[in-house]
Amino acid sequence: MAKESYSLFKESWGMLLTYLTAMVLVVVLTIHLLLESPLTGVQLDATLLFPVARANLIYFKAVFGLLLYAAVIHGVNGLRVIALEWLHPRKRAWLLNLLAVILMGFFLALGSYTLVTVV
Amino acid sequence: MNLAKTPRFKAGLLSSLVPFGFNVERWGYVIHRVTGVILIGYLAAHLFETFQLSMGQTAWLGTMAALHSLGPLEMVGLWLVAGSALYHGANGIRLILNEMFGMLMGKPIMPVYPYSPTSLGRNQKIAVWMITAVVLALWLWAGLYLLAGLGVV
Q1: What average pLDDT does the segment B111-127 reach?
Q2: Which of A66, A115, B96, B113 has the smallest number of CB atoms closer than 10 Å to its CB?
């Protein structure tokens, strides 16, 4: 029997990952907004200039690193799920999964490189 | 028969994005997906923009200048992103409470005509409308904040 490329068992792992990253995003974004928002008076200025001087702070690396990984995993998996809902037949799901992994890898590489190199 | 080529299947794909005539859950389903797509588009653009910092301050300033050259469109885009993030986040929390913890849902009942779903009971409706009110208020505030950035208000 041919191996199924679409598995509800695997999808439930994907769903759990989506929920977990969503909860991480809610917590991290709340911290980010509380630490760096008009509410606390610490905000990007009106021209949206990025304060590069802050970039080497541990806060920057930790919060933005977590934000990057959670957002990319949640976002790309979400996009894959939307596409999957429209995909027929489901036996082509492997192609969609492959595209999602490539896109996720690209985004994570780009973001990680930025986090590591920006000083 | 190839189901994907049937008019009914194609109509089904499009109608899945049209919430008119359906209950608030369907509206939530559609808006959640649309805001999700907006946010992933923003994420890609934001990753590209911050990546320019790795190329040096000059490269990044060039990218920012290109963005600022859009004028008020940039702020409109940011306003849409703010609204999307607010709705997606708030509705996402509701969905997690529903689907992971079974909260805000009524107890299962026998499916008796006219099939009024218990999942759309009083608590769920209160949650949906509270989310809508809070998101709209914060979105308005975000709009005023962005307008202040433009020096309009």
Answers
A1: 82
A2: B113
Q: What angle do CA B151, B152, B153 make, to 5 degrees?
A: 95
* C-alpha A43 chain-centroid distance: 23
A48·B64 Cβ contact <8 A? yes
User: Which DSSP category does A54 fall into?
Assistant: G
Query: Do A81 and A14 touch, CB atoms closer than 8 A?
Result: yes
CA–CA separation, B34 vs B45, rounded Å? 17
Please check the confidence at residue B100 and state whether its pLDDT lies above 60: yes
pTM score: 0.83
Chain B positions touching A19 (Cβ under 8 A) are: 96, 99-100
Please say whether the beta carbons of B136 and B79 come within 8 A: no
Tokens representing residue B91 in the block? 């509705």
Nearest to B46 by CA among B88, B90, B5, B81: B81
Specify the 3-state DSSP secondary structure of B40.
Answer: helix
The DSSP code for B112 is -
Is the pLDDT reported for residue A37 higher than 80? no
Which residues between 66 and 95 in chain A have a beta carbon less than 8 angstroms from any beta carbon of chain B? 71-72, 75-76, 78-79, 82, 85-86, 88-89
Residue A21 burial (C-beta neighbours within 10 Å; 0-12, 13-18, 19+): buried
Q: What is the pLDDT of residue B82?
A: 92
Q: Provide the ipTM.
A: 0.82
CA distance B64 to A55: 18
CA dist B9 and A86 (Å) reads 10
